[in-house]
Amino acid sequence: MSPKQDIDLQHNLAEAIDSLLSIKDCVRWGVSQFNRAGLYFGHGTDNAFDEAVWLVLHTLSMPLDLDVRFHDCRLTRSEREAVLSVLIERVTSRKPAAYLTGEGWFCGLPFTVNEHVLVPRSPIGEMIQEGFEPWLSGWEPSSILDLCTGSGCIGIACAYAFPDARVALSDISDEALEVARGNVARHELGERITVLKSDVFDQIPPQTFDLIVSNPPYVDAQDMADLPEEYRREPELALAAGADGLDIVRRMLTSAADYLSENGLMVVEVGNSELAMAEAFPDLNMMWPDFEQGGHGVFVVTAADLRRYLAG
């Protein structure tokens, strides 16, 4: 942002604090600022309006499903100052809203997040809500591993979906694991969920899991160079994965068979690296689900098919 743009924004802020009155006014103002600044939305919302609503209501300690009758309620000056300051920070910092609120949502569940973890948004959430059908065919896993867990949202959501399963969350980042432990405590699942530090499978004790789920780093070098500013606020460790985006996934597939039970299933998100994945592993039988709620690039492979592939 240029010095002139910053001056203009501060002038707009001072004028807005004096002129805007209601929740609806503040949301409209935020949408206008977001559109003028050309912000990118992809971390829980996909448009300026929803992002502004999220930030305004969170700042006011109001629920996201606030009754519309409250939208015309007037705010105190201190409330307007707080709300508009957050909206301005979204513009100037380019931080996704979840980092400004400290909270993201996944599978209808709240999760604490910060800039040490990705903002929850994986399409794997849709698979969790559907019980990983049809791939599990009604079979409930008794043991689940969330590899490269970040905030822990995938593994914790799996714990809700399969209440009799034991779950392990694993990540290489100490900072991410601190967030994950906090979310385990927040959801009171400490008796069923174990949190482990490991570089892929390297430090995970020998054991098998019925289901391994992962949203690993998978962004290739070209996509990393082209990322919008909002994505650059997320930890590079959780995104970048070499020239073709498959550095981590290759390591995972090399060892995963040793950690899958006989009838186990592995579900991995690779996003835009889907084509590279298909080209790199043409002989591996992978299934690629379609998603009604948006998203792509998730493959499903059975333990049997993975072992068959590794055996050559």
Automatic annotation (TrEMBL):
Keyword Iron in annotation: no
Pfam families linked to this entry: MTS (PF05175)
Molecular function GO terms recorded: nucleic acid binding; protein-glutamine N-methyltransferase activity
SUPFAM superfamilies linked: S-adenosyl-L-methionine-dependent methyltransferases (SSF53335)
Superkingdom of this protein's organism: Eukaryota
Domain Methyltransferase small residues, every copy: 143-223
Keywords on record: Methyltransferase, S-adenosyl-L-methionine, Transferase
Single Gene Ontology BP annotation: methylation
Signal peptide: none
GO cellular component: cytosol
PANTHER family tied to this protein: 50S RIBOSOMAL PROTEIN L3 GLUTAMINE METHYLTRANSFERASE, RIBOSOMAL PROTEIN UL3 GLUTAMINE METHYLTRANSFERASE
Protein name: Methyltransferase small domain-containing protein
Organism, scientific name: Cyprideis torosa
